[in-house]
Amino acid sequence: MPLALLAVAVAALTIARFSPSPRSIDVRTAIDEVDLLEQSGDLEAAAQGLERLLDSPGHDLPQDIQAAFRERLADLVYRSESRQSKPRPEAARQVLAHEELATALGRPASPARALRRAYAHLWLAEHEAALAGFLELLTADAPPASRRQAATQIVGVLRDAPALLPRRSACAERLLADPDLAPELTWWALRAWVRDALDRADPGLARRRFDAHAERLALARLRGYGDYLDGLVSLAEDRPAQAEAIARWVDDWVRANGTDAALNRFGHLELLNRCLAGRAALAQRRADEALAELDVVLAASSDPELNIDAAVARFAALVALDRLDEALDALRQQLTRAEAGASAWLPVLRSAARRESLTQFRALRAAGRAANAVLVGALTVELAVDEPPDTRRALLDALGQAGREAADAATEPTDARAHRAAAAAAFEQAADLAARRPAELPDLLFAAADQFDQAGRLEDASRLFARFVTNRDDDPRAPVALLRLAQASDALGRPAEALHWYRRLIDGYPALNEAAAARVQAAKSLISLGADRYAEAEQLLSDLLAGGSVAPSAAGYRDALLTLGELLYAAGRYGDAVARLEDFQTLYPADPERFTALLLKAGALRRSAELLRAAPPDAVAPAAVAESRRRLQAAADLYGEIYQVLATGGGGDETTAAQAALALLYRADCLFELNDPDALDQALDLYQSAARIEGRTESLTALVQVANIQLRRGDTSEAARTLERARWQLKSIPDQAFADTRSGDRAAWSTFLDVALSANLFRDPATAGPAAPTGATYDGQPSPN
């Protein structure tokens, strides 16, 4: 038909399209109109005309004709929409609907129909269905052009849809079964097939797959592409030097021959090779070179898969260079960008980053770098949020173990506590995921409680130890857990709660050492509740010492004996206290607590001497006075022994220095109380020695006592000078020396000395000497608890 006549006919048909439809349609005329519109290139108008015919109630077409028309309608819509840069979803749905009706009307399958359906699914981003449709066309009876088109689209779908990564291997194998597959598709398919084997950590399979098709990339213009794959497999075979040599050869090949643009669309050889070179350098411990290569890749590549490979390799290089913070920040930033952009590749990036971080975590632990391993392991756990519970539990367990190792290796207590707290949190999270593994739950709970306890997180430790001991009486760790649970309650200031757990331990495991320790600790808790619980505490300790279940060599027996001595002292039963403390000296002559016991014994002798003289002077029997003097002298001698040992070989620490200073003062106090000339001379010498102790409030107490002796001897002016010296010495004592309120604060001392020096005291030698501020003198005895 001449073009002019065709144009007139098309115009007339176009006008007719907007005219009211008649009740009946002339089928032959309608088809002619469709033919004319299609021939003119107006596929959309042709499709509308054919659809109007099929939807008209006036036609009486046979079923096979309707089926053929439905297929033609699907083809018209498909070809019309194929011209668009971005096909419309509604057009894709029309294609699928018409194809479905054609099938229902008996239209047989064909490669053309399969291709249309596959493209329609692709336009709808239904990648799984599109892939299935294109795969239908890889059969031998499909036209070669359709096979080539389908193969190209299969690669495109698999390359651009990360959700289909699990399908890649099978599809690549199927593509490679076609000996006529285009070189660029062969390059992609073989690389994908080899990569699948490498992702399975099976370099042997990767080598077999490469060797099976290597000759297809052996042509001169493809040689570099094939050699790259050889290098990739060599690296996986733990032959990094060979891989690096191949990468250098590929560089030379590219410089000599250039690259193929068509092949590079399916994998940019130069950038892939740079990534290979970087990974090979990293495997040979040249992380700085690796970093330079990988930075080139990340700066130039637009391939999301290659960028993921380069990013995780760069992370490993930074870890190897001990730039851990930078490594973690860079990887987290990449993940954040992928999340913010809702990238379809985010799951792939997360998976690759998790695998590499897990590898680095294990390597750092094996190298003894537990603190760094903890930081990397924390990232691994973050990235495993979507993994199965058992996988996350195992990761958290490993992270907790690494935290414990880091704490053991830490040199600073603050760092150690932080590591233990983090380890405990990991163990607890693992325990929460162990519901389906009851055999592992107790270990995780105990580990979490133990680490919280050592970290000083007593509330958390108490909570988890309580969880552990619930319904686990038969667990061999239950006694230890009960003891530590009770001790945590004690430390938290909850003695009643502590007593509950101590009693459960004592009643449930009476023969164990933990029960002995529980008796001692329970007694201390009772003592802390006040004097009305002393009898109960004494009973616990006496039963332990007399029961025979604990040998004197055991720590529980030793602790019970010393605690009982302290309790009897606090109760004012000084004779009984002396007896128990002498037993302690006999059984444990070299024990670190021997000085505490000696101080208690000396204090008991001194206090009992004071009690003997407590009645009015005319009511005190001579025998009582004599016994009081004997006890004071014994206490003075004992304090002297303590001072000599501490002053000459006590270790020089703050506690030892404090004990030595107190022993010196207490010996002087006992001699002062004896009040005979020789004793006062000795007391004066001792007080003057104590007054020379720098930076301690005991020196002030000693000076006051020196002044008292001087007053007792009638030397008022000397006493005044001594108190003036005390006032000046007060200025040189540091503030921290007044932290113990028993010594009186600086203001109290200043007021006392000012008042003492301004009083009439020094005009009357018979008047009693000055008394130090409240709390400024000591009995030297530690609290019984």
Rg, please?
47 Å
Structural class: mainly alpha
Can you summarize the main beta sheet? none
Strand content: under 5%
* Percentage of residues assigned to helices: over 70%
Nearest-integer average pLDDT: 88
Shape: elongated
Let me know the number of strands: 0
Q: Note the total helix count.
A: 37
Description:
The chain has helices at 3-17, 27-40, 43-55, 63-82, 89-104, 111-123, 127-135, 144-160, 168-176, 183-199, 203-213, 223-236, 240-257, 261-264, 269-283, 287-300, 304-320, 324-340, 346-366, 370-383, 389-409, 413-432, 441-454, 458-469, 478-491, 495-508, 513-528, 534-547, 555-570, 574-587, 594-612, 622-649, 654-674, 677-691, 698-712, 716-732, 746-758. The chain is elongated. Residues 1-23 and 774-785 have low confidence and may be disordered. 43% of the residues are buried. The protein contains 37 helices and no strands. It has a domain at 179-267.
Brief summary:
The chain is 73% helix and 0% strand.
Walk me through the topology.
Elements (H helix, E strand, L loop, with lengths): L2 H15 L9 H14 L2 H13 L7 H20 L6 H16 L6 H13 L3 H9 L8 H17 L7 H9 L6 H17 L3 H11 L9 H14 L3 H18 L3 H4 L4 H15 L3 H14 L3 H17 L3 H17 L5 H21 L3 H14 L5 H21 L3 H20 L8 H14 L3 H12 L8 H14 L3 H14 L4 H16 L5 H14 L7 H16 L3 H14 L6 H19 L9 H28 L4 H21 L2 H15 L6 H15 L3 H17 L13 H13 L27
Helix pairs in contact: 1-2, 2-3, 3-4, 4-5, 4-6, 5-6, 6-7, 7-8, 8-9, 9-10, 10-11, 10-12, 11-12, 12-13, 12-15, 13-15, 15-16, 15-17, 16-17, 17-18, 17-19, 18-19, 19-20, 20-21, 21-22, 22-23, 23-24, 24-25, 25-26, 25-27, 26-27, 27-28, 27-29, 28-29, 29-30, 29-31, 30-31, 31-32, 32-33, 33-34, ...
